Structure formats: structure tokens, C-alpha cells
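Hi support team,

I submitted a single chain yesterday and got back a structure, but I'm not sure I'm reading the C-alpha cell output correctly. Could someone confirm the output below corresponds to the sequence I sent? I've pasted both exactly as they appear in my results page.

Thanks,
R.
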Amino acid sequence: MKYEIVGLKEKTVAGVTARTNNTDPAMTAVIGGLWQQFFSPGIYSTITGRKNAFTLGIYTDYAGTEKDDYSAIVGCEVNAHTAVSAPLIIRKLPAGKYARFTVRGDVHTAVAEFWQQLWAMKLPRAFTCDFEEYRNDDMEHAEIFIYISLL
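Hi R., thanks for writing in. Yes, this is the structure output for that exact sequence:
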């Protein structure tokens, strides 16, 4: 898979979160539930200070590697001083070096295939924060930048 190395500044995001891992049979339902919750009435629409229209799927607070627990967050980038109320949380995504991949196609199949291929790569991952940046809202012809934190 082709990627480019990019340096990112710290980002502030607002979103909903849950803890899971990739071997949990309920992982897909947990992450899917976060997407449903985030776009449910009264959640996304209450976020002020949005910086852009991109939705983010974030994986952070790794207990180790991709085989261990992590926090999944569905959210959007906001201004640094944005305030939210429950169930929303504010999280800082760390500045640093990331591998940026571009994924195009059907959201469900393209993203799942990407992660399967990534897990087979010998990439010097930092396991600090990885995230998907959904560049459009076309579920069948999506353009997604996926950022993987590097050592």
C-alpha cells in the first residue's frame, strides 16, 4: 500500500467514545453504534466550533498494539476552546509523524480491507493515535484519508 509521511499539528476533537479491541466479536457493533450515536438527533448538531465538514473515526489510548484494547471515538475537529456536554467528550489528537493513506470506494468494504492490509504491514507504528478522515459523505464512492501514528 502506498502512503506518504506527514507531520500533523495537534487537533482538538469532539465526539462520542467507547472502549473495544479488534478481537472482540462485538467490535463492529461497538464502532457502528458510535457512528449512529454521533449522528443521532441532538448530538452532532449541538457541536459548536466545528473547523471543517470532515467526520473522524479515531483509535487512541492503545493498551499495546492492534491486538489490545483501545478507545474508539467518532467525532469532528473543533476549535481548541470548544465546550461540550455529555455524552460528547473533548480529546486532543497528538501532533507528530503519521503515514497518510488514501482509501477510495465503498465505505464499509474499502475501510475494512485497508485495516486488514495495514495489520499485515511492517510499519513502525507508534500506537498513540490513528484516525480516519472522511472527506465526503458518499458512502459508495468515499474518499478517506487514514492517518497512522509512526515512531
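A quick pointer for reading it: The radius of gyration is 15 Å. Let us know if anything else looks off.

Best,
Support desk
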